[in-house]
Specification:
globular, alpha+beta, Peroxisomal Thiolase, Chain A, domain 1, ten-stranded mixed sheet, single chain, 15 helices, about 450 residues, three-stranded mixed sheet
Length: about 450
C-alpha cells in the first residue's frame, strides 16, 4: 500500500492571553517562601483570562489567525478536530462552533469533532488527523488540529500551575515537519490522579503527588516501548536519548520537565548500565525501578548528569510554558511553537525531535518527527519571543479578582460578561475573539477585535 509522502505539519499558530502575572510577585502576594513558584515550579509568569474568554473564543482566534497568516482557504480543509478538556457544554462540540468560520466558504464537508482526556486530547486529535490522511477516507485536503485549554485552579498551592493557551496545526503531505511512521510508544491506564467530576465548577480534583508519579511511570513505559520499536523496526543499535536532537514534553510546570528529561537518562542506564557515560551513577545499578521513582538521590544524580544536554535540547522549547503556564492540551504543542521560533531555522533542518504526551486518568504516548525542510516561514509567523514581550502584566490582586469573577459566573446564563474593567484594546491582542454574551438559553455569541 502506498502512503502520501512526508505527512506532517505545514503550519503552526499559537494563542495565549495578552495579560499575565509575575510569579515572583504572586509568591509575595500568597505569602509563600521566595522561589516556591519561580524555582520550585520553574515558572516566571502566568497567562490568564477573565470571563470574556472561553474555550470557544480561543479556538476561534487561533484558527482564524492561522488561516489569515498562512493564506489558507477554508475550502481546502477536510478535517477539523479539537483536543480539549475545557468543557462548557455536555453536547455541543467546540468544533461545531468553529464551523461558523467556514460559512462564507460554503464548505460544510468537514470531518472530525472533539476529543477529550485531560491533557492528551490534542495528541489524540493529531494522531487521528495523521491516520485520516493515510487512510482511504482522505480526499487530498488538509486536516486542522486544535489543542487548547484554560487551566484554572481553586485558591491554594495548585493555582500557580494554571495558564491558558491554544495551538493550531495544519496537517498535510509534503510537510517540512514529518512524523515518523510506526514509532509510537503508548500507555493507557485507569487512575484517579486528576479529574473534573463537578460540572458546576472549572476546578479539578487533583492528587498532585500521584499525578507526578503517573507522569514519570508513563514516561518510562512509553519511552521504552518507543525504543523497542526503534530497535526492531528501524534496526537502530542501542539507541539512547541522544538519538533526539531536541525533546518536547507535556509541561504542567517546567521543573517536572527537567526531572522527566533526566528520567530518560535513567531509562537508558537501566538498559545499558555498562555504558561509560554512566560511570558516575553506578551505585544505583541494583536499585529497583519502583524504588528509583522515590529516590531523591537518584533524581538529583541523573538531573546533574543530564543537565548539559537539557540546557541545549530542552530548555529552548520551554519559552512559552515558562511564561504562560500550563495550557493542558496545548502545553506539549506550545513547546513545539517555542522550538520553532526560539531556535534558528537553519539549526533545525535535518533534526529529529522526540515528544512525550501525558493526560491524567491516564493516556500517554512517546513519538517523534523529523524536520526535513526549512521552517523559516513558520518561525517568522510564530514569533513567540516578541509576542510574549508584548503582553500586559497585571498585579496579583487583579488576578485574584479575575479568578473570583470566573468562579462566580461559571455556568451562568442571560448575561453580558463583566470583564475586569479594562477595554478590549488592553485586554486582548488584535484579532482575538471574545465572548459577547450568553443568552437566556445559554447560547453564546462572539465578537472579534479589530
Amino acid at each position: 500500500m502506498s502512503y502520501p509522502e512526508n505527512v506532517g505539519i505545514l503550519a503552526v499558530e499559537i494563542y495565549f492571553p495578552k495579560r499575565c502575572i509575575d510569579q515572583a510577585k504572586l509568591e509575595k502576594y500568597d505569602g509563600v517562601s521566595a522561589g516556591k513558584y519561580t524555582i520550585g515550579l520553574g515558572q516566571t509568569k502566568m497567562g490568564f483570562c477573565d470571563d470574556r474568554e472561553d474555550i470557544n473564543s480561543i479556538a476561534l482566534t487561533v484558527v482564524q489567525n492561522l488561516i489569515e497568516k498562512y493564506k489558507i482557504s477554508y475550502k481546502d480543509i477536510g478535517r477539523v478536530e479539537v483536543g480539549t478538556e475545557t468543557i462548557i457544554d455536555k453536547s455541543k462540540s467546540v468544533k461545531s462552533v468553529i464551523m461558523q468560520l467556514f460559512k462564507e466558504s460554503g464548505n460544510t464537508d468537514v470531518d472530525g469533532i472533539d476529543t477529550t482526556n485531560a491533557c492528551y486530547g490534542g495528541t489524540s486529535a493529531l494522531f487521528n488527523a495523521l491516520n485520516w490522511i493515510e487512510s482511504s477516507s482522505w480526499d487530498g485536503r488538509y486536516a486542522l488540529v486544535i489543542a487548547g485549554d484554560i487551566a484554572v485552579y481553586a485558591s491554594g498551592p495548585a493555582r500557580p500551575t494554571g495558564g491558558a493557551g491554544c495551538v493550531a496545526l495544519l496537517i498535510g503531505k509534503d510537510a517540512p515537519i514529518v512524523f515518523d511512521r510506526g514509532l509510537r510508544g503508548i500507555h493507557m491506564e485507569h487512575v484517579w490522579d486528576f479529574y473534573k467530576p463537578d460540572l458546576t465548577s472549572e476546578f479539578p480534583e487533583v492528587d498532585g503527588h500521584l499525578s507526578n508519579a503517573c507522569y514519570l511511570k508513563s514516561l518510562d513505559t512509553c519511552y521504552n516501548r518507543f525504543m523497542t520499536k526503534l530497535i526492531t523496526k528501524e534496526k537502530v543499535e542501542k539507541p539512547t536519548v541522544n538519538f533526539f536532537d531536541y525533546m518536547l514534553f507535556h509541561t504542567p510546570y517546567c521543573k517536572l520537565v527537567q526531572k522527566s528529561y533526566a528520567r530518560l537518562f535513567y531509562d537508558d542506564f537501566v538498559r545499558n548500565p555498562e555504558d561509560p557515560c554512566f560511570k558516575s551513577v553506578q551505585h544505583f545499578k541494583d536499585m529497583s525501578v519502583e524504588e528509583s521513582l522515590r529516590s531523591k538521590d537518584l533524581e538529583k544524580a541523573f538531573m546533574e548528569l543530564s543537565k548539559p544536554y537539557y540546557e541545549k535540547k530542552v530548555k529552548p522549547t520551554l519559552l512559552a510554558s515558562t511564561q504562560v503556564g500550563n495550557m493542558y492540551c496545548a502545553s506539549l504543542y506550545s513547546t513545539l511553537a517555542s522550538l520553532l521560533s526560539n531556535v534558528p531555522a537553519d539549526d533545525l533542518t535535518g533534526k529529529r525531535v522526540g515528544m512525550f504526551s501525558y493526560g491524567s486518568g491516564l493516556a500517554s504516548s512517546f513519538f517523534s518527527f523529523q524536520i526535513k525542510k526549512s521552517v523559516a516561514d513558520i518561525s517568522k509567523i510564530l514569533d513567540v519571543p516578541n509576542r510574549l514581550k508584548s503582553r500586559l502584566e497585571l498585579a496579583p490582586e487583579k488576578f485574584s479578582e479575575v479568578m473570583k469573577l470566573r468562579e462566580e459566573l461559571h455556568g451562568q446564563k442571560g448575561y453580558v460578561p463583566l470583564g475586569d474593567g479594562s477595554s478590549t484594546e488592553d485586554a486582548f491582542f488584535s484579532g482575538t475573539y471574545y465572548l459577547e454574551q450568553i443568552d437566556s438559553k445559554w447560547r453564546r455569541s462572539y465578537k472579534r477585535t479589530a
